[in-house]
Amino acid sequence: MNHLLILPLLIPFAAGVGLLLAGRLSLRAQRWIGGVATAALILVAIRLLGIAAQGEISVYLIGDWPAPFGIVLVLDRLAALMLLTSALLAGGALAYAIGGADRAGQGFHALFQFQLLGLNGAFLTGDLFYLFVFFEILLLASYSLLLHGGGAERTRSALHYVVLNLVGSSLFLIGVGLIYSATGTLNLADLGGALARLDEDARPIAAAGGMILVAVFGLKAAALPLHFWLPHAYSAATAAVAALFAIMTKVGIYAMVRVLGMVFGHGEGMLADLFAPWLLGAAILTLAGGTFGAVASSDLREMVAYLVIVSVGTLLVGLALGTGEALSGTLYYLVHSTLVTGGMFLVADLIARGRRQGAAIVVGERPPRAGLLALLFLIGGVALVGMPPLSGLVGKVMILLAAQESPWMPWLWAAILTSSLFVLVRLSRTGITLLWSGEPRPGASPAASALIAPAALLLAMSPLMVAFGGWLTGYTEAAAAQVIDGRGYIEAVLNQRPASPLRPTSPL
Question: Which DSSP category does 199 fall into?
Fold first, then answer.
């Protein structure tokens, strides 16, 4: 077993526990611990991506019990890509928070690390129940992070967020229970075969469990009509927290790819492709709802939150198509949209800090360093719209080309292209209103370079994804093929032997 595989869990867990136990540490010491841990995560994620890029699927047996009886961590190309995306986003968000936002409340750095623990665990786990467990870890941390800084608006948004996610967690557990009652297993590598072998009486139970999971993952991903918690929650959160939350919806998308694709898409039984028609309808509705919300927003932070929903709709299109080409474009666009929307939350906060009108999209004072902020806003806007020469265009073109063989092709093309047009117009007018109209704010301090740098680095990922587009699209194509085939994942997990020769192959 490769012990590197446990580090994405051990590093944030050790840092988070250490920060909690050493509660009297100075803020400077907390920043150092959090910063070093996050930097180490980035390095580990890069190393794991290099291992996964060779086509190797690594399995780690926690407790040295073999699958499907024990807890397993699995690293394939998809998991490695998600780990690195999460680590890069966390690095930018934490760097921005260290600029001063972490002073607004206690426990920020410990909660930040526990959030990363939940995210990394969700990406690595090979068991449906422990996917639920890691979902709960990241949600518990996110509840407190959302409240960081206090205030009535954040409290109201957090209340809605908590209630809806508690309902979602309850449904998740019910869905897991139904699937276990039908199959007797929750190991992802074992589930696909177990579902394919089900008799006629047990299949409706498993299908009901799967439909419940679709609803839960749709809630986590903020797909319509389960999206209404996101705009207020993300716009009310501090900028660093909102930036980190840019990957929260992608966890729902990841769960759909992993569970619905590999488990329910396994074989040719009645459960294969059970969910594609539902996902296509949800994708078009999510695109439309996110676009209309962005166009109607009167607050820049809320508008960026709706753009997160637009990205979810685009990802659902690629996921619902179900082909290798569509999934490859989905993975490319997932990385792009996560990093760029995270950077745009930081840009929105920088603009709001420099205006008496805050983030309200009205003609007023221009913030200091408006030219630099306008450049960052332009890069983020062009990337999100999907215009050349940035990565949004590459991801959308990959998805659009993959949709050509679908009978839904006219609807999907119309939804994506119309959404892009409306978002382009809205972002253009917003940038002119906030950064080119009005007079400069007198006496305002310009945004510190320490705050501008994290936003610039996250947005710089878009041109970098184009510069290394050949390698990255090749990687996403291989990742998509690995996920759709699934045989390598199943064989790697079920054939992994315990490290100890004295350990039995079954706990029974």
Answer: -
